[in-house]
């Protein structure tokens, strides 16, 4: 659980240190800007931005039942963020697996990508797609029977 928040906590802590340093030299505007930017970056790189993660086994079981894609991701991944933001509210229809939180999910990603933990890896109907175009994932989510 703590690993999921590590990156976000580092951004927040770094921002707090920078904010304090700017306040000490009397730069209130810079301090406010640093605090706002670091907080925004911390939130974007936290698990809060993504739908609730489930374990790889549960995601596979749910996907088999409803036909929805399984998205393997990790906090801090720019491509995962791009996919999440481009999907918008539709992202909640997919089953998300945080590979830093679930070792079985990380193993599935490595198996699909020749030993690399390349994310996002989206599995649709048992077939993995590494870093697919967000429009394509949106099409998979919009297919009939996936509501």
Automatic annotation (TrEMBL):
TM annotation in the entry: 7-25, 31-50
Pfam families reported for this sequence: Glutaredoxin
Domain Glutaredoxin intervals: 70-127
Keywords for this protein: Membrane, Transmembrane, Transmembrane helix
Keyword Transmembrane included in the entry's annotation: yes
Name the record gives this protein: Glutaredoxin domain-containing protein
């Amino acid at each position: 659980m703590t690993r999921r928040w590590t990156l976000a906590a580092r951004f927040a802590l770094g921002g707090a240190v920078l904010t304090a340093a700017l306040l000490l030299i009397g730069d209130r505007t810079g301090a406010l800007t640093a605090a706002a930017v670091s907080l925004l970056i911390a939130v974007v790189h936290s698990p809060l931005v993504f739908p609730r993660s489930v374990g790889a086994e549960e995601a596979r079981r749910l996907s088999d039942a409803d036909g929805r894609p399984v998205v393997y991701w990790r906090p801090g991944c720019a491509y995962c963020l791009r996919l999440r933001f481009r999907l918008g509210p539709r992202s909640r229809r997919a089953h998300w697996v945080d590979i830093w939180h679930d070792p079985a999910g990380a193993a599935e990603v490595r198996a699909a990508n020749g030993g690399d933990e390349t994310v996002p890896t989206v599995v649709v109907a048992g077939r993995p797609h590494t870093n697919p175009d967000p429009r394509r994932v949106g099409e998979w989510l919009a297919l009939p029977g996936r509501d």
